[in-house]
Amino acid sequence: MSQTRLEGPEFPATSGTTKSIVVLLHGYGADGADLIGLAPELAKFLPDTAFYSPNAPHPCEMSPFGRQWFSLASYDPEMLRRNAETMPTALKALAQGARENTTHIENFIENVLDQHGLEANRLALVGFSQGTMMALQFAPRYKKQIAGVVGFSGALLGTDTLAGEITSRPPVTLIHGSADPVVPVQASKLAQAALGENGFDVSYHERPGLPHGIDGEGLAIAANFLREKLS
């Protein structure tokens, strides 16, 4: 597969000195502009952190202006909600799409780290929805251990192959709204269980009544996690 060089909006370290990096991975049908708005809020806790929010490599099949990391043509959240016990099998069908696109993220991260002269342990990923799926697909299989992963409203794909593919175990915090109609909250619960069983330091935070999105409390949880891991 040919590789597209990812590009997207940036937010520089407010202190003027970049000592760490956060890469924001947007959801399906959005683009990097969707999450870069989190940077000014997170920067209040992370003044020495530069933020990057790359656009996913593919035009979205369902939106003329958005981007996608991989196809969701076969995704059916209603089926997942009605049949929670089949969720791992249903998510497995999406895993190949995520797997095929992690190289885009690796290349982007390597370029950003080189640009700032930083090691991987000075970089964290923050994903939302499909961006979380990509972060959780990439980080455990990356040859270097990053500082951590924040996953909003997402899922862990390909749990059946995870144990044999782990090359690093960054800490993970998962945040999910209990009223999410797009990615059922059970997906993050399954991710927490699978990561925990495989030796990851993983925490889970459920936001009561929240639909598919990020609220102030969830953002505060993410900021505290990132400050701890990047301090």
From TrEMBL:
Q: What are the Phospholipase/carboxylesterase/thioesterase domain coordinates in residue numbering?
A: 17-227
Q: Which InterPro entries match?
A: AB_hydrolase_fold (IPR029058), LYPA1-2/EST-like (IPR050565), PLipase/COase/thioEstase (IPR003140)
* Coiled-coil region list: none
Q: Does the keyword rRNA-binding apply?
A: no
Q: Name the Pfam families on file.
A: Abhydrolase_2
| Signal peptide from the UniProt entry | none
The molecule here is called Phospholipase
| Organism, scientific name | Thalassospira marina
